[in-house]
Each structure stands twice: as structure tokens, then as C-alpha cells.
Amino acid sequence: MAPLRDRLPRLLVAIRSLLFWSLVYGYCGLCASFYLLKLLWSIGTGPTQTFRRAARDHPPAGLNDPSLGTHCYVRIKDSGLRFHYVAAGERGKPLMLLLHGFPEFWYSWRYQLREFKSNYRVVALDLRGYGETDAPLHRENYKLDCLITDIKDILDFLGYSKCVLIGHDWGGMIAWLIAICYPEMVMKLIVLNFPHPNVFTEYILRHPAQLFKSSYYYFFQIPWFPEFMFSINDFKALRHLFTGHSTGTGRKGRPLTTEELEAYIYVFSQPGALSGPINHYRNIFSYLPLKHPMVITPTLLLWGEKDAFMEAEMAEVTKIYVQNYFRLTILSEASHWLQQEQPDIVNKLIWTFLKEETRKKD
After folding, report:
1. Which of 57, 95, 110, 321 stands the most exposed, by the fewest C-beta atoms within 10 Å?
2. Does the residue 261 lie in any domain?
3. Catalytic residue among 27, 120, 203, 281
4. 281: annotated active-site residue
């Protein structure tokens, strides 16, 4: 009996792992079937429109707006990758590092670049594989360990040992991981619309509604087909994310202008521009949940109540993983695209959090 008792914990772990990966690949297959039916329907109802793509030879003027900051590039020695970022504010001021989500790039922080440059050196980064940053070809180059190291190397290059770290969506995932792995690098952590990583993985297994909302995570595990589906109908799926009734911006805040939306379409319509961003998701299930998940950094979590992709209950649960000052603010009627849709409110909440924490330390 003793050998059986000794083997039982390992057996339970193996069974749980088997069930988990069965769920991942089973749901992946369901998502693939659903999107294949959508493709066939699109081809059947409008084959010419399905494969139409407008020519976009020049970037929209907003991407080169000097009021947003200066476009800069850095090549990291260890990885050899060239990173693009936009910087505003004087060198030498405290660093505020901004990490965007999917499908975004540095431009999603345009309101924050203008707002915080008075007190900070504000840097909005194109993450690995996005925008003008290099995009390695293989999915192994997008493991979370690589993404975390990228941020550490960028910080070193900029000449800083610590920063105010702000992340939205997938950038929020990376921001949480940086705060966990390198707490000495993060003075303040601010995350928009992404829960603590362990909350996400635990919640999704227990709540079918969140599993459905996160279906794109599973769909993205399939090679090349997700990139193809995003590109058909002149990037209709990408447009829908920002403008759709259930998913888009602008219910009670600012909708994207035609020029702002075209900036996103222009960036992601470049050759190969979708593979890097989607590769970010193709390693997530082998990394989470975290074995050492606690956060010791003062943390602000901002959440849009009408987020079409993340249920607000995950925001409430996140506080159990933060062993420091934690503030959660849920904005009613706000969507997933918080910093673009409600920039004035978001900026005010960030200012309050930064100043309030400073006063606590004095």
C-alpha cells in the first residue's frame, strides 16, 4: 500500500495534466472548425470580397505625429533583435514603460505619451514581433521567458534600474510577470484589463463563459490559419475588434477615428506582421500557472466593466496575489480598450495612484 500512496500524488498530477491538455486541444479543434465554417460562408457569399485587400503603401500621418514623441531603435546584444519604441519626456526623469496588448502596438498609448511626459521619461515599446520591432520566425522565440528578458534588456539599455511599469491586455500579462520575477525593477505596477496570470488560468477552467470569451487563445494555437482569417475581407476581423458592437470602443468614451483605425490596419497589413503577435499566444499553456506567483509591488488594476474578453470577477480575485498596496478600479460602461476609450479618466486614476503612493512613503 505504501508504494501506491507514494505514487498517488504523481498520478493525480498526470491525470490533471492530461485533462488540461485534452481541454486545450479539444477546444482548439472546435474553434478551428467554427472559423473554417466562417471562411466557407464568406467565400460562398462573396468570394471576390473575401480575398480583397486594399493597397497601403504609406503610413497614416498620425503615426509620425511629433507631439507623441521620438521614434527610436535599439538592438539588443543577447537576442540580436532590433526593438522600436517611441519616447517622450526628458532623459533623466523617472522611467514610465508602456507595454501594449493584442492587436495593438506602441500607438495604443498615444494619450499617455502626451499626458505623462511632463514628469516622466515615457517609453511606449513595440513588443517582440510587433510593428517595427523584429519578428523572429519560430514560435519558440516567443516563450514568456524571452518576452520577460526583452523588457529587462530594454531597461538596461535605457540606463534605468527601475521604472513605473504599465501594461494592457497581453502587455499586462508581461507586466505581471516582470513584477513577479524582477520586483526590484518595478516601482509601481499598473495593469489594464488583465488579471494576475494564475487567476486567469484557474478561472478559465471553472467558468465556461470565460472559456468562450478566451476562445481566441485556443484558436491561435493552430499554425498559419489564424493569420489568414485576420487578413481576409481586408482585415475585417481586426476592424471588428475595435468597432464591433460587443467588442469595440466608444460606448461612453472615444471611438477610434477613421485615421486611428487605419493606423492599426496599416501596421498589421505589412507582410508577415500578424505571425509575431499571434506567436506570443502559442506558448502560454506550457508556462502557466506560475509556481511562485506573489507580487510585492504596489499595484493598480484598472478594468473596463464591459470588457468583451475578460470577466470582471477575475479582477476582484487578483488581490489575493498582491502582498502590498492594491487598488482596483472598475470603470462602468468602459470596454477592453481602456486607455484609448477613456484616456482622461485613466490618466487621472494613474496620476492619483502615483501621487498617493509617493505621499505614503514620505
Report:
1. 57
2. no
3. 281
4. yes
